[in-house]
Fold:
Amino acid sequence: MARVYLGPAGIPIGAKERKRSAGTIDGIRYVSEVGLNAMEVEFVQGVRMTREAAQEAGEVARELGVRLSVHAPYFINLCSEERDKVEASLTRLQESLDRGEAMGATVVVFHPAYYGKLGPEGCYNAVKDGVLRIIDWMKENDIKNVKLGLEVMARKSQFGGLEETFRLVKEINHPQVVAVIDWGHVFARNGGSIDYRAVLNMWREYFGDQPMHTHFTCVKYRKGEWVDEHEPIDTNNPPFEPLARELGSEDIEITIINESPLLEKDALKMKEMLLKYNNVLVGLH
Ligand SMILES: [Zn+2]
Structure:
């Protein structure tokens, strides 16, 4: 039985239908009302939230028992050949971490890099350097709770295979740096297959019983390859139910953020499957 935090990637669709200008706090309330207990705050197009707004959102989330996390901007590449792009990437991470800390988020997830001309090994070192600089910055700025999460990526041109991500996080070995599994990305990068049991075993091997932060979405098959385009979980690529079943026999804490286009609807379908295999949603029935 896994202890699960489950919710949408961003403000639920229902909250926006109810109120067109729904913000983060409306989203958190909605998540709690429908019976979920997590939400990822999306800074994917840029960090446009003040520190005060982040604090307020954090207070509401704490009151309602909703676990918050943050997705950092997409425009990050720690392996860029252009120095100013690397610097801008670090700034975006710092802004995201600052707001994440203010809202009491558990983790700031980011897409580390494209291999580019550096290639896998050079990029590995560049990502490591960038993360080490962020660790220093967190220390200097009293960011001591929120974690930095390196996401496992879908494309072969991106840094972020399962093995290299785990290896780097393990090598850095800092309590505020974690690996974030995106189950859909693992499936896509692996040519349309995933062995959940093997991934969970690999997590144990590297990180023991450390809580997991993960994303789930189904992805699309187009022009002969699996691409990172998000599809509803009914499309079953990959299927969610076998993951729910495997988690049923795990004694671990896991957050699952639904990134399918049906944000809260699919999260609620996942909830049903998780409960069917005796998992527990923390704070909910
Ligand atoms: Zn992502």
